[in-house]
Amino acid sequence: MGRSPCCEKAHTNKGAWTKEEDERLIAYIRTHGEGCWRSLPNAAGLLRCGKSCRLRWINYLRPDLKRGNFTEEEDELIIKLHSLLGNKWSLIAGRLPGRTDNEIKNYWNTHIRRKLLSRGINPTPHRPVNEPSTTQKVTTISFGVAGNKIKDEEDQKMINVRAESGLSQLEDEIISSSPFREQCPDLNLELGISPPSGQNYQQSHHDQDLKQSPRCFACSLRIQNSKECNCSKNNNNLGNIAKYNFLGLKTNGVLDYRTLESK
DNA sequence: AACTTTTTCAACCGCGCCCAG
DNA sequence: ACTGGGCGCGGTTGAAAAAGT
Questions:
Q1: Which of A8, A53, A116, A218 could form a disulfide with A123 if both were Cys (CB 3.0 to 4.6 A apart)?
Q2: What would you report as the CA-atom Rg of chain A, rounded to the nearest whole angstrom?
Q3: CB A76 within 8 A of CB A195
């Protein structure tokens, strides 16, 4: 006994949306707001599946979407977040205002993967391509000082995960022809990420206050006015500062990506 | 100009999670 | 505790556009 379909497929349109459909959807959501996607198509007079409406709205029609090319800054942020979160596109999108998970996923697959490969970095585990990749020990995302080994060997065993390289022939060619690889044969991209070099931490009074102290995750992503910002709390209690890495995550243990979930 | 190949990205699909009943 | 509906996520597909021959 399977799940009932989310909509009556026989009576729904598929494929590209027409201008008229877009206008209907926009008008309906403007009046009634988002939500209740299952009942929305009927209510809005659309011959579409609710999921399709949701996708169209979130990925294309939402007024707060940022259009245009990704900036270099966004590129680097995506790479960093991906190294921490993996293919958690919705979480990554949550840290890039105006970008959608689908957009970032596509951009990753078409541009950033290639960019990393040309740097000699395997985009899946974020490690050099010439490193053995069948069964790798991937250190749980830990922001301790380099050399801060995980003490318990059992813990170490628990975090052995299989990482597929999944490189295509084309990607192999990109890598083998990469000048970067020749320059940096021993490039080691550990997941412990240090602050971007040359970054100016004194851009705002907020940063000014913090120039001697680590920044929280929210500040690092320039959403320091959000409730996720820990700096003020931190500053009020300087005697008891938790150590934060540049992403603002406490360094006393393992990153649980769920803590990054957008609210 | 015509055709083929490659790239891009909007949209679809199926699964898993969450929550109300 | 269990079940089913709704939603969101991530992987995949395929049409359109761009690039190459």
A1: A116
A2: 22
A3: no
